[in-house]
Design brief:
about 325 residues; 16 strands; three-stranded antiparallel sheet; rod-shaped; single chain; alpha+beta; eleven-stranded mixed sheet; about 20% helix
Length: about 325
Amino acid sequence: MNVHRPYDHQGGTRAGGGRVIPLRPPAWDWSFESDGALALEPEVASGSTGLDTSATVPRMARPEAHGLAYRAAAREETRARVRRARRTTALLVAACVCLVLLLLTAFGTGGVAARVTRGPAPADRLLPSGPPRPQVVAIQDTLRIQTPIDQGRVTAIGYHASGADVLALQPVGAQENAGIVKRFFHRLFGQAGSGLRYYQLGGGVGPQTGGLDVGAPVNTDVYAPVDGSVIAISDMIVNGKAYGVRIDIQPSGSPGVVVTLENLKPDPALTVGSAVSSGRTKIGRIIDLSSVEQAALARYTQDKGQHVHIEVRPASGIAAP
């Protein structure tokens, strides 16, 4: 049997004889069932270059302490209530602003300034004034009472109680010192047919609109408020002294009543039985009664409230001259 000897590469000859010692692997503590299975190469998925070295898993839910969920819901509810309260407050503020603007629009500047409508005429206007433009100032049944004074000289118009025997007048126009609800209604819907403004004055007995005061400066010309005839001219006695006259007119269209005018100096041409025409026949001038009378109309004028006073009474209640 030929035995192959190792070749001596350095000397270029075969190596000399030597002893061949068979090699034996060391004793391993190795189990095929367990270690052999680990030594197997795992299958590599198609298109993959190797094994994945990391993986991502969903984050675990954070456990909350007992009661935290309830407190979070309570905080959210509190925030919702705060937001609702803020919205409600903003709406209320906006509503208040709109209401104030509406009231200012309806009543203008209001207050005391609205009460003083105009002052007395200046001295250069105290000359005899012209007749007034036709304008109804009050109504009593079918009787129409015309404005007895030139509209440019009227300082204020007021109504008050003047006795139990006088007849109530129906004012034409809007009450300037009415309550807020009535004024608001009048400003919104207006007053048909007239731009007059009047004041309700306190005091006296009888109908609250029985006496009509038309204010104007002293010596202002006064014209007949109705068509008719003069049935009486009598002195007005105050504290035993005469202060002007009282003029009674029988209206031509209403024989059952008598129209009375006071606080006047009579016109020299006026006599009992004289025929008068509304707004055209001058019957007298306004006198100053401030020394013996405190006029309620003065609250709404810049003078002492001088005026001509008008009443309507049943004809049966007037004493024969």
